[in-house]
Write a structure and sequence with these properties.
- It is built from 23 helices and 23 strands.
- It has 613 residues and is of the alpha/beta class.
- The N terminus is likely disordered.
Length: 613
């Protein structure tokens, strides 16, 4: 634990007093966390997440399994649909125990228990009819209560002030439903059933688009995040400074707006609040290999899976920081883990309990999975490669091309063994395989903490900082940086404190110049390099890549506008842009001689949002 001191005495007695109070308030959790057999080498942060969210407890709230027991429970459950159960249980267990691959948090928490909801989230489309809305609300409530999230498409909802033919009532529009779903998710939190992340998406030509873009700010939503489904026509109109039409649900032109003014409005909101994010729906649907089943209008809450309505998010990630052999990629190991990950996630679809038969049939007819990666920034740092450099982009291409090839081959093998996904004949795929989609890169919040690696494909968010755990603050140092510093002889506690207070290694005395470059944090990486990195990964990912550009405090609205425009031009499917500010942050950079501080779950990505995947 890190407490400020001066000449061996506490600078402020309140620091000790407050720390003692926090220890009292969290004594039961602290006892359980500190009593774990930690043979697997979890960080204190990881142990706290395990105790809080993932390990099984008795009715008194006491933990009744170890982390290794959890991995055994998950492996046994997921292998239960195999003919050779023991063989695959052993393979899955070894992969999980070594943290070479981890599935989403719901799978870790619920597999092999009475709660059989293993998928992270779902996508549901809100209907235009109020009579059909009740069923969506019921489905959402079931998902929320199991700890899952929901991505909604609001695009079919009638605009505000539209008169309903049935009884001449005035419709309140999509923005009004924000409050309804946010309250439902808040009730789940109050009951201690976990967070219920929600994303709402609305098409850019919906008549209520301007109100919807500011709905989070106006309604004060705590759980719902917003996306605007942007079309190519709109972006072209922005480039050419032309008008575009707002349209009714049946395509009737209603009102023309200047595209550039609307774009400025959206980017200003994003600059101020981090919302809305942008979904480039035409690019999404160009790559949709199930066009015959309909158009994709939304994504699940974190944005890495763009799905048809009633589909599920089945996610897992390969820990790239454990795919090294010395200073080289261990391609044999990476291939093996990729193939095991595909089989594992396909099995999750089989053992998952769905909210209703309609959703179950849709999911199992398409069998979409989202195998991704994490630990990318750690891998680059270990190999002494700067994030966004030509060398890093080349390596990203090589790795993701390899992962894609192996995942596709494994899905073909599974199709021969277990059958192709039922809707294969309605797809644009040429060769029969088990899964309609295979790859998606998620933010990997909780699971990257458990894996002891950086989040998704994000840059490092910091090198040295304080971590809030159970009401206390502990000093943390990035392990890759610590190893480099010790090996090169510049490891020093005072230097680490300077880094924490500065929020960066740049310009810190004692840190060699080339090390400063390799360990640049997310706000020091140029936004063009963020986009370049995302675009390279996206070109080999058949679903989507969830990526956040964290801009420094001095960034302006023009930076946000440039980021979204570049992302669209380079073929990205979505993008989130967030400017550093001082409100509701899960990571605050050191300033005014104060240390950088990270919340329990934060490990990179969006600064004012925790990813509990």
């Amino acid at each position: 634990m890190f407490l400020k001191s001066k000449n061996g005495k506490l600078e402020d007695f309140e620091v000790l007093k407050n720390s003692v109070e926090r220890i009292k308030n969290n004594s039961n959790q602290l006892k359980q966390v500190l009593s774990f057999n930690n043979d697997l080498g979890f960080s204190l942060q990881a142990l706290s997440i395990l105790e809080k969210d993932l390990l099984q407890k008795n009715r008194k709230g006491s933990v009744i399994e170890s982390p290794e027991d959890m991995f055994a429970r998950v492996a046994k459950c997921v292998a239960s649909v195999e003919k050779k159960k023991k063989k695959w249980e052993s393979e899955f267990f070894g992969m999980l125990r070594n943290r070479e691959f981890l599935p989403n948090s719901r799978t870790l928490a619920n597999a092999g228990t009475k709660k059989k909801q293993l998928c992270a989230s779902y996508v549901l489309e809100l209907p235009s009819s109020l009579n059909e809305m009740d069923q969506v609300l019921k489905d959402s409530a079931k998902i929320f209560h199991s700890g899952g999230g929901v991505g909604f498409s609001f695009s079919k909802i009638k605009p505000m002030e539209c008169v309903l033919n049935t009884n001449s009532r005035i419709f309140s529009g999509p923005a009004s439903f924000v409050h309804l779903f946010d309250k439902a998710a808040e009730k789940v939190k109050e009951k201690g059933l976990g967070n219920a992340p929600i994303r709402g998406a609305l098409r850019i030509d919906h008549p209520d688009i301007l109100d919807f873009a500011r709905a989070k700010e106006v309604w004060g939503s705590k759980n719902l995040h917003f996306s605007v489904a942007i079309s190519d026509d709109f972006m072209k109109a922005v480039v050419n400074d032309e008008g575009y039409w707002l349209k009714s649900g049946d395509g009737k032109k209603l009102k023309q707006l200047r595209a550039r003014e609307v774009y400025d409005y959206l980017c200003t909101s994003s600059w101020e609040t981090g919302n809305p994010e942008m979904l480039f729906v035409d690019e999404i649907n160009r790559k949709n290999n199930l066009k015959k089943l309909g158009r994709i209008n939304s994504s699940e809450p974190c944005g890495e899976l763009n799905l048809l309505s009633d589909e599920a998010s089945c996610l897992g990630a390969i820990n790239l920081s454990r795919m090294l052999k010395g200073k080289h990629i261990n391609w044999v190991k990476l291939g093996k883990v990729t193939r095991l990950g595909v089989r594992f996630l396909d099995n999750v679809l089989a053992v998952n309990q769905y909210p209703n038969n309609r959703i179950k049939n849709k999911v199992l007819s398409n069998r979409k999975i989202g195998l991704g990666i994490m630990g990318w920034a750690d891998l680059l740092a270990t190999l002494n490669i700067s994030y966004g450099s030509p060398k890093s982009l080349k390596l990203a291409k090589d790795i993701m091309k390899f992962v894609r090839k192996n995942s596709e081959e494994e899905s073909v093998i599974l199709a021969r063994e277990k059958g192709a996904f039922p809707n294969f004949n309605k797809s644009s795929l040429k060769k029969e395989r088990r899964n309609a989609n295979l790859l998606a890169i998620a933010p990997t919040g909780n699971i990257s903490v458990l894996a002891g690696c950086s989040s998704g494909i994000e840059p490092l968010f910091g090198v040295a900082y304080l971590r809030e755990v159970l009401g206390l603050k502990f000093f943390e140092v990035n392990e890759t940086f610590a190893k480099r510093a010790r090996f090169n002889g510049f490891y020093d506690r005072q230097m680490l404190e300077r880094i924490s207070k500065k929020g960066s290694v740049k310009g810190v005395k004692g840190v060699p110049g080339h090390v400063q470059e390799v360990f640049s944090n997310s706000m020091e990486v140029e936004l063009e390099k963020h986009i370049d990195m995302q675009a390279v990964f996206q070109s080999y990912v058949d679903n989507a890549v969830s990526k956040t550009i964290n801009l420094p405090l001095e960034a302006n609205i023009g930076d946000v506008k440039r980021a979204y425009m570049l992302a669209w031009k380079q073929g990205c499917k979505s993008l989130s842009v967030h400017k550093e500010n001082n409100s509701n942050l899960h990571y605050s950079r050191g300033q005014n001689k104060e240390h950088s501080v990270a919340s329990l779950n934060f490990c990179g990505g969006h600064l004012n949002r925790n990813c509990e995947y």
